[in-house]
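Worked Example 4.2. Consider the chain below.
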Amino acid sequence: MTLRIPAIVSCLLTFSAVSVWAGSGNNPQEVISVGIHDTGHAIIEYAATGHSETCATPGHEKLVLIEKTDPRFKYLYATALAAPASGKKLNGWVDGCVDLWGDGRVRIPKALTLGLVR
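Applying the procedure from the previous section yields the following structure tokens:
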């Protein structure tokens, strides 16, 4: 029984290390617009694509979505709004995509973190 415990711990550590590297950084970008979509999610449009997520629907690569169910929604949305208002760039981390309508037509990278950059 004790021989199985190290193997299980080793396996769990391997999987947790893999999840740490998921997602991609979103380099500092100029914000073109920030708004609330019909679905209730907030969407940020950047001047250029600054991340390496490949799940976005073609034509939607410059967008980043803040999920309405994220407990930090108000903070992330306020940070996104502050970028163009202050003339600063926005950066952060994105991970995966959200199926905007739930039918597979439009997938937009999901924001995990956002921050203002000089």
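Confidence is low (pLDDT under 50) at residues 7-21. Residues 24-117 form a domain with the OB fold (Dihydrolipoamide Acetyltransferase, E2P) fold (CATH 2.40.50). Compare this with Example 4.1 before moving on.
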